[in-house]
Specification:
Layout (H helix, E strand, L loop, with lengths): L1 E2 H8 L3 H9 L7 E2 L6 E3 L4 H12 L4 H8 L3 H34 L9 E10 L9 E5 L3 E8 L3 H12 L12 H19 L6 E2 L1 E6 L3 E7 L3 E6 L2 E4 L6 H7 L5 H4 L18 E6 L5 E5 L9 H9 L4 H14 L6 E10 L3
Antiparallel strand pairs: 1-3, 2-3, 4-14, 5-6, 6-7, 6-8, 8-9, 9-12, 10-11, 10-13, 13-14
């Protein structure tokens, strides 16, 4: 048996940390002397102690470390991979915010900067197979949103989520940083979904853009998507929260294989189950945005989407054409499209 001092030196953990981990049931000593209260550890505990130390260096919360330490090695490895993916996602969000702040504070304000506004249209369709439409699409002067409900009450769930955001579509945004405002609004949307549906069986995705007058704040969770058409190039600006996308990210599946994968619609995240992706994007005159439920990219290739968006169609015409394309290819799912153009405001 090793004393706490000897075990601390061998594991590179301080005696203070070992006492804390004992209290939190992370690393119990093998024996505690009844008369003195001294802690003694077995050499076999060194591996777990080192694992705890490594996980702490990753910045993993103590409660999560306790869960990981209770898993078998393969499951623990998967949990660590998932934790690190979340860390990288949060780091990317903070990096985007930092870049915005640097640019915002460094760029001189120009009085002759043209005012921008959105021209927009939303269209939603049941498709040719589903008995009901569980999608909700909305487009306004400030707010663009698509939600794709699932479960027996999927339609009310998606409708409640979007309805809870509509207060943002006003002349003046609530006071505060736009990302914080959007984050708070999403919490309200989550509560609204919980009020109308049993979230154990029902839920919804949510992809929304909030217009600030020169930038767009994006919130995204699930497998609805947002695309940007800029200078002729089509860019997907959201990342699907699905099992299939995680397999693509890990290199275990190609995008081509994903289109026919039996679990291609299985979500890893939905509104309220995990933190959504939130980011701020610069806008430029000539940009065209598309928000859509997975019923569109599930059957219509990106190349066709780009062709439709690149033409001279108005947002109304483009949205209706994309929905028609999905139905022409069998319409197996509900399909919703919001198309919005960034244009210079009329003088």
């Amino acid at each position: 048996m090793l004393t706490i001092g000897a075990f601390a030196r061998a594991s590179r953990l301080s005696p203070k940390a070992l006492r804390l981990y004992d209290e939190l049931d992370l690393l119990r000593p093998a024996r505690v002397a009844p008369d003195t209260g001294y802690r003694y550890y077995a050499p076999a505990q060194l591996e777990q102690a080192r694992l705890v130390a490594w996980l702490r260096r990753l910045g993993m919360p103590l409660a999560r470390i306790r869960e990981v330490c209770a898993l078998e090695p393969p499951a623990a490895a998967a949990a660590i991979r998932a934790h690190w993916a979340d860390v990288e996602a949060q780091t990317a969000l903070r990096r985007d915010l930092a870049a915005f702040l640097v640019e915002h504070l460094s760029t001189p304000k120009r009085k002759d900067t043209p005012m921008l506004e959105l021209r927009y249209y939303a269209h939603s369709d049941r498709g040719l197979v589903r008995p009901a439409n569980q999608d909700t699409a909305y487009a306004g002067a400030r707010l663009l949103a698509v939600a794709d409900g699932f479960g027996p009450a999927g339609g009310p769930a998606s409708g409640a989520a979007v309805e809870a955001l509509r207060f943002l579509d006003t002349d003046e945004l609530p006071a505060g940083d736009v990302l914080n405002v959007l984050e708070e609004a999403v919490r309200g949307a989550t509560e609204a979904v919980q009020d109308v549906a049993d979230t154990a069986r029902n839920g919804t995705t949510l992809t929304a853009l909030l217009w600030t007058g020169s930038r767009l704040a994006l919130v995204h969770v699930g497998d609805s998507r947002a695309y940007l058409l800029r200078d002729g190039g089509l860019f997907r600006i959201t990342h699907d929260h699905t099992v299939v996308q995680s397999l693509i990210d890990e290199g275990r599946l190609t995008p081509e294989e994903a289109t026919s994968h039996p679990q291609r619609s299985l979500l890893l995240k939905a509104l309220g189950t995990d933190a959504p992706d939130i980011a701020l994007r610069d806008a430029a005159a000539g940009d065209r945005y598309l928000l859509c439920s997975d019923g569109l990219p599930g059957v219509v290739p990106d190349a066709v989407i780009r062709t439709v968006l690149s033409g001279d169609r108005t947002p109304d015409e483009a949205a209706r054409t994309l929905v028609a394309e999905a139905n022409a290819r069998g319409g197996p799912d509900n399909v919703s499209c919001v198309v919005a153009d960034v244009v210079e405001a009329a003088a």
